[in-house]
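Data card: per-record layout.
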Amino acid sequence: MDTPTPAQPLPLADPTAMGLIGLAVGCAALLPIALGLTLTPEALKTAAVFCLLFGGGCQLFAGLGGFVNRNLFGATLFTAFAFNWGVNAWMLWSVAGGTLPDPTVLLAVDLCFLLIFLVMTWGFGYFSGLLFAFLADIDLMYVLKIIAGLTGTHALALPIAGCTLALALLALWIAFALLINPVVGRRVFPFPGPLFKAGPRS
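The structure for this 202-residue chain is written out next.
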């Protein structure tokens, strides 16, 4: 009888929680602007720095760490999202300087991102219902952004801000579940299992 081969430890600790905390901080920096509480150049530049360092930096590190750990699904999402946060930072800085990004290009990219996130949402449903909800919130945000871009309406600013807040809270909940639950030995932060069941591999 063959002797079981012990599981090899991951080269890095799971960087997912750090990526999620960075995402939450980036969302927090955007909320005052999304809610219209402050729109000064100083506020835009301040938010840009947080978006670049936390939204972009933490998620880029999480994505690259995921590739090292052979977590293709999470690594792909985090890395792509990291560069998107870099673009967010550039747009905030540009608007603070009086330059508006081209809306047609932004709309085209938002449509591409929506397609990507819809497929990723389905995939994450095979990991956890909470991850599915996390991606579904991103999907809804992009749908609202696309509608606003097509119609030119500002009426969706508050719902988009609500999606941003929900995204930050979901990111923190998942991060805390990954960080705290193993430490205390029980599910202080519940983390539901898969929403979908994978079929047999061919």
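Known properties of this structure: Residues 1-5 have pLDDT under 50 and may be disordered. Residues 137 and 166 are 7 Å apart (CA to CA).

See the next section for split statistics.
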